[in-house]
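USER:
Try writing one entry.

ASSISTANT:
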Amino acid sequence: RRSCPNGWRLPDKKEWDALVGSQGGYESNKSFQALQYGGGAFFQAQLSGMQLPKGEFSGLYEEGYFWTSTPSGGRSAMAVVFDKKTKSVKIVPVDRRAKLSCRCVKE
């Protein structure tokens, strides 16, 4: 199953590390501010939450979840999380059955 259109792909963890690192790094208020919608960086995350595997929604307007192409063992893959409560960006494993936002990069 493809998450991005032909000619595009999900970035891996290293590519997300470079983007977040260029704005202050993970767990940084600076990167959270710069990379969210209206923050002035070339990437503007929306805090659109996620849909959990059983169908319920979580985190709307509070968190933004974005897939990476990096597996995290079993049914999980790494995801980048923009967390309004802590004003930080994190990377965490998430069940692949969840529905998250996708950032696609040109191949």
